[in-house]
Design a protein that fits this description.
Two copies of one chain form a homodimer. By secondary structure, the first copy, chain A, is of the alpha/beta class. Chain A has three domains: 7-79, Arc Repressor Mutant, subunit A (Orthogonal Bundle), CATH 1.10.10.10; 85-202 and 381-403, ATPase, nucleotide binding domain (Nucleotidyltransferase, domain 5, 2-Layer Sandwich); 211-376, Nucleotidyltransferase, domain 5 (2-Layer Sandwich), CATH 3.30.420. In chain A, 44% of the residues lie in helices and 21% in strands. The first copy, chain A, is built from 13 helices and 16 strands. Chain A has helices spanning 7-26, 32-39, 43-55, 122-143, 178-185, 198-209, 266-270, 272-279, 290-302, 306-330, 339-359, 379-394, 396-403, and strands spanning 30-31, 59-64, 75-79, 85-91, 95-101, 107-114, 147-154, 157-158, 165-168, 173-176, 192-197, 216-221, 225-231, 234-236, 334-338, 369-372. The first copy, chain A, has a five-stranded mixed beta sheet with strand order 6-5-4-7-11. In chain A, helix 8 (272-279) packs antiparallel against helix 10 (306-330) and helix 10 crosses helix 11 (339-359). The longest helix of chain A has 25 residues, at 306-330. The first copy, chain A, starts with 6 loop residues before the first helix and ends with a helix. At the A-B interface, strand 13, helix 10 and helix 11 of A face strand 13 and helix 10 of B.
Chain lengths: 406, 406
């Protein structure tokens, strides 16, 4: 920072910029005068802060608002779609996904690369990840937008204090400094690289998508099953960042062995690969894009295929047992089915409901609400990218300072 | 409030009184000068606030402190043991307990009345509760101390927003306004009546007892099994206050039917009554004081009785499975065994550990710590009483205003 003005002024401006940007985010089309009224800032201060936000392309002007006052205060403001984008990466068990998300939360240039990452070491997967990020950076350049940082979603335990990936059982990885290694390989990437658990990113995406949902568990079932808990509008990541591992709730303690070494984990009984096997539509991992295999399952279910129906109902029952345990422990009123469970919801809903109704103690007073996410199977990669733009909206001066080179 | 001074002064004094009292609580024997140094308040302000706290018997003076300065600042201050006491009541499934707790956290006049509350209606149990509270009030009068309010621990779901007992499956109660009914029957009781879940009160008692434990689940096994979660030094009660119902985690989904109607709940497989049955030391509920029956079990275990040993090991295994589910969901690093589990710990520890080590995903990085509570089986009633004195310590002016009749 070479700006010669005193530190106190920076702090105040930084705080006020965030106030103004949040007001714009909360109410697209808002006028400068309305922002002044809502924030309690002087109109001149708002105008000067808005000028900086416009220059950094964090906000854009809309046409004149309906009841325009004098001068520029009659122009509406919204978050800029051509401002900084978050770059999201998801290292899935059998795919690699990337996307860009703009400040308004809209996703662009989503790319999905099927491929079984279990058969490849950390080194190889990281090399693919670096290539995928570079492609995504070119997507951003082609759109003419800057990238504000990278969010990386992984199917494992990410330690909150260090950002280390401590354990990813389905990948067979332990203690990998993904953030550090990606940073070293991608010195050209502006902004931070943030590694997080895929289920937490997916739950966060759900939270940012639907402001009225403030307390829920978002569960997504791919090869591994993860959950993210949102309590009072904030992600609850646990003491060390390891919460939500519902894939390893013992739902049948004497049941079949799970990849983690224990018996009867939910992952082993209701993970997507096991559903596909039981339904008779399983292929070698990576042979077909996962979405295509899931489509085939849905086609069979729609056609009334008995084997497929039974497989999905069984999974719904096991999922209901695990979610009953989770809701009894944590007390959230709503379950949001995401990922492949959202796709399979019509066929697993009844079995799931029955377990929740019987097994959640508080269901006798208030039944657990079960809803289906509209985000599809991209929730985690989208949440990873969105986490970057949320950081910019929460504290725009960090981006502005970097962007303006001061 | 008839005090004519402006509201602003009240607010400041109220805030500063709490600051001073907290400084005394944190460092018994502290001098007025040291409080001034630590809080940043002027010495004269501290002296005047301390005089009010002394007059209300919230603090007491110790002898001169070691390196005494000039005048009264050389006298140490501590919380007063003869100041207001919290009155705790626990409505157990097969007993009724009461106690008093002073400001220093010491318990007095603990009384335990065995008796099966399942066979009696709400009306009858409440009548016994009212009598027990009156006895406890007489205990306080005999000690010459005022009572600051009543905390009531119950084995059921207490709705945070309303204070209603929504459901107590082991008592067969639903939607009881315990607080309102006790208030109506006990108009003479000063202060508030606060109803809460027994497992949450027990966990809070554990938190207040051991300042170094900041993140844990406290599990206590009586006829019902309850858990209280403490995250970052605060009780985590869930969205509606219904968290910690680990007694209804399905540990053997196809297992025997639980009182709640579901199959294979932890309550049904590791609740104290079922352990006693399996061990062959079971009596009709209320026939003997529960502690006496537990003593008999411990005697048999110590003598190497095989049936007793197997029963407790099985319970430890089921408990380990349920706690593995809870830790996978919520991510706490420490399990505190309380209540009868603390008593049985030497005989169930190994089976419990084995399940936690195998089934908690993060245990591969950091094994779950298992410790035994020193609080004994009185943790819930103690926590209920302590919650009242904690309220006074957090905001002493409410008590002073009531006490001084202003």
């Amino acid at each position: 920072m070479t700006d010669p003005s005193p530190a106190g002024q920076h702090t105040v401006r930084r705080h006020n910029s965030a106030l103004v940007l949040r007001a714009v985010a909360a109410d697209p089309g808002v006028s400068r005068a309305a922002i002044a009224a809502r924030t309690g800032l002087a109109k001149a201060t708002v105008s000067s802060l808005v000028d900086r936000l416009l220059a950094a392309d964090l906000v854009a002007e809309t046409g004149p608002v309906a009841r325009a006052g004098r001068g520029r205060s009659g122009t509406g403001l919204r978050l800029s779609g051509s401002g900084p984008h978050g770059l999201g990466v998801e290292i899935g068990v059998d795919y690699l996904a990337t996307c860009l998300v703009d400040l308004t939360g809209r996703m662009h240039a989503h790319r999905l690369r099927p491929g079984d990452n279990r058969r490849r070491g950390v080194q190889q997967v990281l090399a693919s990840t670096v290539r995928a990020v570079r492609t995504s950076l070119r997507d951003a350049a082609a759109r003419g937008v800057p990238v504000g940082g990278i969010g990386v979603a992984v199917p494992g335990l990410v330690e909150a204090a260090t950002g280390l990936l401590r354990l990813a059982p389905n990948l067979g990885w332990r203690d990998v400094d993904l953030g550090g290694r990606l940073r070293a390989a991608l010195p050209e990437v502006p902004g931070g690289i943030r590694v997080g658990n895929e289920a937490d990113f997916a739950a966060a995406a759900q939270l940012w998508e639907s402001a009225e949902l403030r307390d829920f568990v978002h569960v997504s079932g791919e090869i591994g099953i993860g959950a993210g808990f949102v309590v009072d509008g904030a992600l609850f990541a646990g003491v060390r960042g390891f919460s939500g591992e519902i894939g390893h709730i013992p739902v049948d303690p004497a049941g079949p062995e799970c990849g983690c070494g224990a018996r009867g984990c939910l992952d082993r009984l209701a993970g997507l690969e096991w559903i596909l096997r039981d339904a008779g539509v399983w292929d070698e991992p990576g042979a077909r894009p996962p979405a295509e295999v899931l489509d085939e399952l849905v086609a069979r279910l729609s056609a009334g295929d008995q084997r497929a129906g039974t497989a999905v109902r069984h999974a719904g029952r096991w999922l209901g047992i695990a979610l009953a345990a989770a809701v009894n422990v944590l007390d959230v009123p709503t379950v949001v089915l995401g990922g492949s469970y959202a796709v399979l919801e019509p066929w697993l809903r009844e079995a799931l409901r029955a377990e929740l109704d019987t097994r959640v103690l508080s269901a006798a007073c208030e039944p657990v609400r079960v809803i289906r996410s509209e985000l599809g199977r991209d929730a985690a990669v989208r949440g990873a990218a969105t986490s970057i733009v949320r950081t910019i909206i929460d504290d725009p001066d960090v981006f502005i300072a970097g962007d303006l080179g001061t």
